[in-house]
Amino acid sequence: MDHTKNERGNGMFPKDQRLSPLIDDGDFEASTDGGVAFKKGPWTAAEDAILIDYVKKHGEGNWNSVQKHSGLLRCGKSCRLSWANHLRPNLKKGAITREEEQLIIELHAKMGNKWARMAAHLPGRTDNEIKNYWNTRIKRRQRAGLPLYPPEVCMQALQESHHTSAVNDGDKGPHGILQNDSYEIPDVVFHNLKANQNVLPYVHELPGISASSMLLKDLASSQYYSFMSPTIYCQKLLRGPTAFFPGYTGSVKSECPLFEQFEDDMLNKAAQSFGASFPIGTDPEAKNSQSFGVFQGSHSLPNGSFSASEPTLEAVKLELPSFQDPETDFGSWGTLSCSPPLLESVDAFIRSPPPSGGLESDSLSTRNSGLLDAIFHDSKTLSSAKNHASDQSSNSTTPGDITEGSDFNICKTAWENCGEPLSPLVHSASSLFSECISASGSSPDEPSSGETFTEIQKEDRIQLDSGRSDTLLASDWLEQGSRYDPDQTVMADTIATFLSDDLSSEYKNMAAGTSFSTPEWDLGSCGWNDMPFVCPMPKLP
DNA sequence: AAATAGTCCAACCGCACATCG
DNA sequence: ACGATGTGCGGTTGGACTATT
């Protein structure tokens, strides 16, 4: 038996250690179970031989009896693990091949962290091996600012998931993975979210998960970091420095080096404008790891295209830690000391529909206040103090596009403070969306289906009552705000600019390379076409 | 050459589920 | 039905190795 752990030569335990004829060199702690002291730590060659001999005689299984039959001082678990990962025949050693890598990526896009199931598709590879490989890959790509999934994998997985959802049962797709097993998400959730995918393409990933919960988890564990959808990155931005400079995103930065020059200064200024009490953007490490780098990496590829690094519905659901379950009592989050009240307010805001007479007034929340109200108020105050800047901004926009006191003015002012006469990136999302829609052959003003957005929304609200996305609510709110209340438009602006880059990125991506039918991606019927999006944003080529 | 950071991966741990008596 | 036991799985840890500073 070849005990070589790693043909790359960097295995944890040197061969000579495993080849040691001694079973117990006394260097490793032992655990006891029923009076028997089990050895822990790396296995020796002698132990391997004993275990192999045992399996030859008794077959696999009944691992707890190994000690009884062979005298091997290892617990059953350890025996099973050693056999499965190192000793069983037909194990493939060596580096993951290109083909295997591709398969792993595809499988992970469909399954999530189901290593054992993935291993079943990779003969000779163990779940542990795949898991280790994937975790390393996550770190590597995270560090490099690359999306976790290649766009084509995302699209394939997404399309397959759509297909799976459509057929429900029977034909489950070509891979046999999307079968009606534990990965299946009840159709009621995602079917109803489809109608809103045009607004937030990633909304369906994380139904019922609050921004704060996602962020807190995100900050607490890097394990899920790369799985965060761009939407979640946006939500994260609400809590990070960039929340106070809504137009700024990593994507912008990546495509416009100009942002590099003034990001720290501008962010600090913007933050101060909003009364932020914490320093911003001075720590490059924090900058990379907490918002900019991740955001950047999750959106842009080296070739300038936008990533669609989204796992499928199945994967996302599976990767949610238990406390991200929609049924989790989110109220408990407020008790976390690491969560500033400011951030809680964002959640409260995002979850809350518009306070003024919208169609869904029955779902009005008394929690509609907090950070964004404060932003709204502060921005108005600031705008009053800097009315001249507001007036100048009308050159690049129509009067209706910019409401006095909008965050745009602040951004613009900040930009001017940084020495630039006017941001070259000012770009109307309305026109941007129009481009996208036109590219995909659909008019934003003409719903291609007979069903209006409002009708879809109504239906969705009813059916998504317990599982709706925070971001979805935000979209609802935005629509309402932009239509019914001039004041709300300002706040809608604020939120819109938070989201704008993601939306534009995704729509750009979709319009350029996908074949989604227009009803899936129809923007016009949702009212976003009229949204006064004006924020620093890269122009489409 | 030393220190540091990053990578890799074996092994452990806790939990969930299945089976058995 | 229930507890004990066995098994499988996913997450995490920690040490060796390698690359970089």
Automatic annotation (TrEMBL):
Keyword hit for Transcription: yes
InterPro entries hit by this protein: Homeodomain-like_sf, Myb_dom, SANT/Myb
Keyword line: Activator, DNA-binding, Nucleus, Repeat, Transcription, Transcription regulation
A Gene Ontology term for the protein's cellular component: nucleus
Region described as Disordered: spans on this chain: 383-403
Protein name, as recorded: Transcription factor MYB21
Polar residues compositional bias, start-end: 383-400
Domain Myb-like: 39-87, 88-138
Top-rank taxon: Eukaryota
Gene Ontology molecular function: DNA binding
